[in-house]
């Protein structure tokens, strides 16, 4: 089946009437996505492995072993809430399409080639980005992960059990030695989340590295009271402390060339006519360096604490998920890009490729041009012509590695 045919099959899964995607992990939609993945693998007579954390790998040319480690490509199928079609799935569909193209060229793989679909990459349900790859590589332990709950209070293990036959580390293949250690090289293709390639006039680019980033929970507490009878000077309103904090984060990020986003908010008691007693807000912070990220978060926290002192409120900050800076294997990037003229660009978005790179797997990334730069939105898009150029680039990269 062609790239376009696979995309047409996948496109309606998890799509809301208004066009956005809700492909959260370990749900009925996730089960449909897994069925699609297994079907695509069957069409190519590829062998599918599923680990205890929900990660899927389809192998072409035999299953990778310790003696003959494989090449791996792929990405993820889950989305953010009300997300776009391309972030993640483009890399999975392109992986299968690249296998097809290699077969059409008459390539007989000298080692197994795998297409991966990592679980819970976005962290949209359980709050930890790249959770599947973190668990597979041992960057997170099951003992840590099993304590995670979603917004409805569902435990991770219970959610996994709805789509996996045996979730958790008791299943064979749960530890890193099951398949991550059988990967010689990982190349992830992804739609660009920005406009760098547009400005360069290039359809495809190579990744140089990933900015460090983190997710931080800010718990502001105050005193619930009546919206009408409580004088302004008598209030201990955590919403005011949060509001100043959001503005401070925006200012500090702009001053330093960083990224800071408060995109999720919970308010208690969440009544129109009541001063809230608690506001919980999640900060997504990113910077070009680890020092820049630390300074950004520390400055925002200090300003929030100062404001809390004036408002008579209190603040607790918890780092829920952090990722260090990643520099992709420079020698590998040079080899893959030799003679291609592809620009080499950094990304401020997190990826499973970063987790595998930190686990010691030689890793590279390919980016496909995004005409608007919009991502994590229903408006996310890539032209079919550029997607096909990405498939060809990925096939060329895999062929070069096989050779």
Automatic annotation (TrEMBL):
SUPFAM superfamilies: Bacterial exopeptidase dimerisation domain (SSF55031), Zn-dependent exopeptidases (SSF53187)
One Pfam family this sequence matches: Peptidase_M20
Cofactor(s) the protein needs: Zn(2+)
Coiled coil (UniProt feature): none
Chain positions recorded as allantoate binding sites: 215, 273, 286
Domain of life the protein comes from: Bacteria
Cofactor: record remark: Binds 2 Zn(2+) ions per subunit.
Xref: Gene3D superfamilies: 3.30.70.360, Zn peptidases (3.40.630.10)
InterPro entries associated with the record: Amidase_Cbmase, Bact_exopeptidase_dim_dom, Peptidase_M20
One annotated GO molecular function: metal ion binding
Keywords attached to this entry: Hydrolase, Metal-binding, Zinc
UniProt-annotated binding residues for Zn(2+) 2: 87, 122, 376
Chain positions recorded as Zn(2+) 1 binding sites: 76, 87, 190
Family assignment from sequence similarity: Belongs to the peptidase M20 family.
Protein name in UniProt: Allantoate amidohydrolase
Organism of origin: Nocardioides jishulii
């Amino acid at each position: 089946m062609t790239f376009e045919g696979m995309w047409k099959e996948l496109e309606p899964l998890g799509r809301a009437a208004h066009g956005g995607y809700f492909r959260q992990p370990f749900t009925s939609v996730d089960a449909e996505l897994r069925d699609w993945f297994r079907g695509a693998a069957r069409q190519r007579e590829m062998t599918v492995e599923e680990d205890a954390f929900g990660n899927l790998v389809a192998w072409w040319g035999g299953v990778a072993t310790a003696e003959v480690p494989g090449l791996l490509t792929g990405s993820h199928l889950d989305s953010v809430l009300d997300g776009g079609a391309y972030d993640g799935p483009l890399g999975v569909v392109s992986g299968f399409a690249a296998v097809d193209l290699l077969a059409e060229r008459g390539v007989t793989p000298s080692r197994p080639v795998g297409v991966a679909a990592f679980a819970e990459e976005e962290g949209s349900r359980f709050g930890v980005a790249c959770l599947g790859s973190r668990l597979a590589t041992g960057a997170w332990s099951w003992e840590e992960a099993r304590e995670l709950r979603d917004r409805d209070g569902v435990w991770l293990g219970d959610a996994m059990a709805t789509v996996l036959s045996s979730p958790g580390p008791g299943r064979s293949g749960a530890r890193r030695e099951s398949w991550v250690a059988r990967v010689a090289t990982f190349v992830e293709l992804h739609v660009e989340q920005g406009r760098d390639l547009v400005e360069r006039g290039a359809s495809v680019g190579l990744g140089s590295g990933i900015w460090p980033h983190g997710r931080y929970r800010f718990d502001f507490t105050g005193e619930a009271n009546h919206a009408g009878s409580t004088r302004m000077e008598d209030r201990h309103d955590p919403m005011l402390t949060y509001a100043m904090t959001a503005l401070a984060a925006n200012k500090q990020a702009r001053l330093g060339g960083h990224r800071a986003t408060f995109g999720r908010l919970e308010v208690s008691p969440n009544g129109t006519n009541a001063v809230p007693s608690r506001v919980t807000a999640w900060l997504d912070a990113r910077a070009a360096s680890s020092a820049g990220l630390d300074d950004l978060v520390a400055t925002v926290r200090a300003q929030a604490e100062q404001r809390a002192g004036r408002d008579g409120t209190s603040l607790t900050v918890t780092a829920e998920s952090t990722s260090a800076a990643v520099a992709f294997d420079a020698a590998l990037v040079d080899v893959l890009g030799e003679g291609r003229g592809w620009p080499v660009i950094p990304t401020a978005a997190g990826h499973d490729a970063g987790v595998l790179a930190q686990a010691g797997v030689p890793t590279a990334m390919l980016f496909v041009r995004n005409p608007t730069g919009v991502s994590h939105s229903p408006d996310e898009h890539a032209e079919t012509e550029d997607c096909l150029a990405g498939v060809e680039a990925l096939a060329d990269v895999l062929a070069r590695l096989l050779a």
